[in-house]
Amino acid sequence: MPKRILEGLVVSDKGDKTVVVKVERTVLHPVLKKTVRVSKRYHAHDEANDFKAGEKIRIIECAPKSKLKTWEVLPREAN
């Protein structure tokens, strides 16, 4: 099964080798039939402490690294 890749905004980089990423999705409300934004925060492993708050990054699923961290930050693409 392929690993999921999500894109989101770094909201915190205070932890050592950890970033908190907010991922927003749009879903259809089951009763109101309106599109609503739903967000969720993921703790992701950032080995080199490269990413700072406010940056847009991509994360990928991985084996658990700690109690909360089951995601890794994908490296920046070379332009």
From TrEMBL:
Q: Which domain of life is it from?
A: Bacteria
Which Pfam families did the record assign?
A: Ribosomal_S17 (PF00366)
The entry's keywords:
Ribonucleoprotein, Ribosomal protein, RNA-binding, rRNA-binding
Biological processes per GO annotation: translation
Q: Does the keyword Ribosomal protein apply?
A: yes
Q: How does it assemble?
A: Part of the 30S ribosomal subunit.
Q: Which family does it belong to?
A: Belongs to the universal ribosomal protein uS17 family.
Q: What is this protein called?
A: Small ribosomal subunit protein uS17
> Origin organism of this chain?
Asticcacaulis taihuensis
What's the gene?
rpsQ
